[in-house]
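User: I've been going back and forth on whether these two constructs are worth ordering. Before I decide, could you fold them both?

Assistant: Sure. I'll take them in the order you sent them. The first construct and its structure tokens:
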Amino acid sequence: MDDAPVLSIVVPVYRSESILPKLVAVVATEMKALGLEGQFELILVNDASPDNSWDVILELATANPWVKGVGLRRNFGQHNATMAGLNLSSGCYVVIMDDDLQHPPSAIAELLSALKEGYDVCYTNYRNRKHALWKKVGSRFNDWVATRLLSKPTGLYLSSFKAMRREVVNEIVRYDGPYPYIDGLILDVTRSIATIDIEHQERESGAGNYNLINSVSLWLKMATSFSVFPLRVVSFLGITLSFLSMLMLVAVVVGKLMYPDIQAGWASVVTTILFIGGIQTLCLGMIGEYMGRTYLKLNKKPQFSVGRLVNVANKSNE
């Protein structure tokens, strides 16, 4: 569209009432330095934050017409909130960043430069990460899983601070499932990806909102929504256990024929039963995870639900 902004910045918001004013001020300064005054929009998606984040968004949107406020009816999670922002964005380029100022807005210029060079997507790679140790370890595990499940290029860090072309965003928002994983959707669309190095900043105030439960949920979402690899692992385990069971059966028969007086090994029998039962339970649970997600998608479980808007027209509500 002729009146579309050059840049949309999408920020999912949760427990950030004290940070938002500074975030808006810093973004405004950087956009002015880039010569994008009047040519950008900042979309703040309030993911049913329990603090006064929505009231702060209303104040900021009233004072700055380029601030767009989106209030979700309940907490849907970071990736769902981001999808809500992407659906309502209209910029030729779209940047996704966190609300805690650990992602420096000054890096947006480099992100846009990479896109203008022809790349579809540009990720950021953090120097001197300020995350807790468990989160760094979890991030490495996430990287390992994504490489194997999503065929992620080796060395690409799937940062939550990234920029995309409008064409990529248009493809991503076609996904209407209830459990989106932004990076999985990006990797489904394109491999034209660049990276830039940035300094990871200290969180402006408060503690991070992501915890171990969120990380496990993200891994399950990645595994069961964007890959059938876990089902193939389950099939391989089934074949392997069947083969081992046949070998054990042959060994038992041969042993009984050679040594008729040998006593039955009840401990080994019970151990084998428990082991196979545990594997079967794991496999059934994995299959159930896939079936459950399929059931929820078929029943059109909403990806997000917009309750309130300010300075933006509602183009989508699910």
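The second construct, handled the same way:
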Amino acid sequence: MWWKPPRFLLLLLFPLVSPLLFSSDSYSDACDPRSLPDPLTLRPDRLTVLINGYSEARLPLLHSLAASYAVQPLVAAVLVLWGNTSTPAAALASLASDGGVGSAPISVIRQSSASLNARFLPRAGIRTRAVAVCDDDVEVDARTLAFAFSVWDSRGGASLVGLFARSHDLDLEQRRWIYAMHPDRYSIVLTKFMILGTDYLRRYSCWGRLSEAQQLVDRERNCEDILMNFVAAKESGAGPVLVGGRVRDWGDPRNNGGGVGDGGGRVVGIERVGLSARSGHRKKRGDCITEFHRMLGEMPLKYSYGKVVEGVGEQGLCEKGGKLVLCDHQD
């Protein structure tokens, strides 16, 4: 059991965190409870947004997204986790913000390596019971964020909640797991946007049995989201929850215009720098599922079905004005 320092010591150890441009992660301190806020002091009514960034080509978009999340009422803080160690300090200077009236502070944390495991490190700057982990090319509006958070809270914080779902499946001939998309079921939500409890950050980073799996994530530079789904499914005994809402995915390769960046509306080439654009991406993720199963000696992933949506209006169709519309549609 982790030792909990007395409250008076916590006040000395954890003063109010202000935005720091070049604060850094510390793997040695991440699992030391003395370096983290007392879980009993974490806010239950707000969340912290963790944006993973690496590509300098996405910095203008990242600046816009961080500012957009910072003004949402639900957000207590935005932490930009920057993994490109060669980026000049000047290129990141404009990202950090002290916040202000109606805006949460934005901090930039320069990671000590490009490890994707670092996006799940416990951090002293996280003062909320929930975090929203997202990529630097995804924008979720305030209403969708609030709805996803309410779904997470209604499940007691045990389930992962996301907006992008995938599935594991079994190749019977090869006797290996594969990474798939099914129209009727899912078992994985992606870190493109995922809400989870802060306690899962500690489980992911500090559970010794995951060290071999974390090494695989580092070797492949992939699959950290799959491993977090393993952790959550093992702890909760349940699958993730997919919610519906409005989300702008700038990095989807199906984008063909309508963004910002080239004068005509596009973010030039932004869809080509993501991990999912690499050759063999899907096979590699299937291999990760197979290896995680072998390393942990069990397959905890559970299937979920359906999507949680905000509205519960009637589904019946009626003819109005010569058109078929939902019966509760008001003219």
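Notes on the second construct follow. The radius of gyration is 21 Å. DSSP finds eight helices and 15 strands in the chain.
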